[in-house]
């Protein structure tokens, strides 16, 4: 399938191709062939450009191992934030959780370089903030501004990168507590941070998260909204780059760039050049067996 490259979308910016470019790419989930075609479509120059990845490098698609090897090979030209599927891989690899029936991470778990890849993945950030942009996999709770979100992300990263990371992963799963409090401590505290940043779609005005609904915004339970539509949200100074919500597809507003266009569902893989908001997309070959949004 030939790559489909989109035209610039409502871009007031001008960009010189000779300048350094930063491309943000939506959820890949093991779709390696599409990733390489997408990167070829915007003529990535590793000596000059960078690629930001919104998380969920792995799982559901057919080539998670190839994706990890490729992104890691980019070195400091790649910025990756952790998604829920990336964390799931770490949990399963440590024997702290069972693979799900539709997981496709066996190639990573059986690879001779698995330890090096998993160690690299475990040390990726939860959140990346640079200039006017903030990248996180799923979203931020309404009460968290940019600085506080960074502080909370660093708490989780310190645990993931430290010697006690297995204990952190052991207590990672669960949807409770479902709301933030500054008084939270221990596993409850870190679980809320991780769930907001890697799993959240809907919450209410008090920041109570709802994890069962995965579809369009019209499917929101009574009293709940998409996290980015909650009135009075604190993180409004940065343009937030995220993924995780394939049912919404690409959504671009002045302060929000949502990039999960459902590649693993057989739709497309999307990149956006941050300097001028030009979109690049490639069609995906086929829906991954058993794929469903998580």
What does this structure look like?
This protein has 294 residues and is an alpha/beta fold. The chain has one domain: Metallo-dependent phosphatases (Purple Acid Phosphatase, chain A, domain 2), CATH 3.60.21. Helices cover 27% and strands 16% of the residues. The strands form 3 sheets. The chain has a 5-stranded mixed sheet, with helices on one face. It has a 5-stranded mixed sheet with strand order 4-5-9-11-10, with helices on one face. A 3-stranded antiparallel sheet has the order 7-6-8, with no helix packed on it. A hairpin with a 5-residue loop joins strand 6 and strand 7.
Which features does this protein show?
294 residues; alpha/beta; Purple Acid Phosphatase, chain A, domain 2; 5-stranded mixed β-sheet; 8 helices; 27% helix; 16% strand; disordered N terminus; disordered C terminus
Topology:
Blueprint: E1 22-25, H1 32-41, E2 50-53, H2 64-73, E3 78-80, H3 84-93, H4 106-109, H5 114-122, E4 127-130, E5 133-136, H6 146-161, H7 165-170, H8 186-198, E6 202-203, E7 209-210, E8 225-226, E9 239-242, E10 251-253, E11 256-258, E12 268-273, E13 278-283
Parallel strand pairs: 1-2, 2-3, 5-9, 9-11
Antiparallel strand pairs: 1-12, 4-5, 6-7, 6-8, 10-11, 12-13
Helix pairs in contact: 6-8
């Amino acid at each position: 399938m030939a790559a489909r490259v989109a035209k610039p979308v409502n871009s007031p910016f001008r960009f010189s191709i000779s300048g350094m470019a930063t491309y943000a790419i939506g959820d890949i989930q093991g779709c390696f062939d599409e990733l390489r075609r997408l990167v070829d479509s915007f003529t990535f120059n590793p000596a000059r450009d960078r690629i930001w990845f919104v998380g969920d490098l792995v799982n559901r698609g057919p080539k998670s191992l190839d994706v990890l090897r490729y992104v890691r090979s980019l070195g400091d030209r790649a910025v990756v934030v952790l998604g829920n599927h990336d964390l799931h891989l770490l949990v399963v690899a440590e024997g702290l959780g069972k693979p799900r029936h539709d997981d496709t991470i066996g190639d990573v778990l059986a690879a001779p370089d698995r330890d090096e890849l998993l160690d690299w993945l475990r040390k990726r950030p939860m959140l990346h903030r640079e200039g006017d942009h903030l990248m996180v996999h799923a979203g931020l709770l309404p009460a968290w501004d940019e600085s506080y979100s960074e502080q909370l992300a660093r708490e989780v990263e310190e645990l993931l990168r430290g010697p006690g990371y297995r204990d952190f992963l052991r207590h990672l799963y669960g949807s409770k507590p479902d709301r933030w409090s500054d008084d939270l401590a221990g596993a409850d505290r870190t679980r809320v941070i991780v769930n907001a940043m890697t799993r959240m779609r809907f919450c209410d005005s008090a920041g109570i998260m709802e994890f069962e609904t995965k579809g369009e915004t019209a499917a929101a339970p009574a009293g709940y909204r998409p996290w980015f539509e909650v009135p009075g949200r604190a993180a409004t100074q940065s343009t937030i780059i995220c993924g995780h919500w394939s049912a919404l597809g690409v959504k671009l507003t002045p302060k929000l760039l949502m990039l999960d266009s459902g590649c693993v569902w057989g739709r497309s893989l999307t990149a956006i050049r941050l300097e001028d908001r030009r979109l690049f997309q490639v069609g995906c070959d086929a829906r991954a067996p058993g794929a469903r949004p998580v």
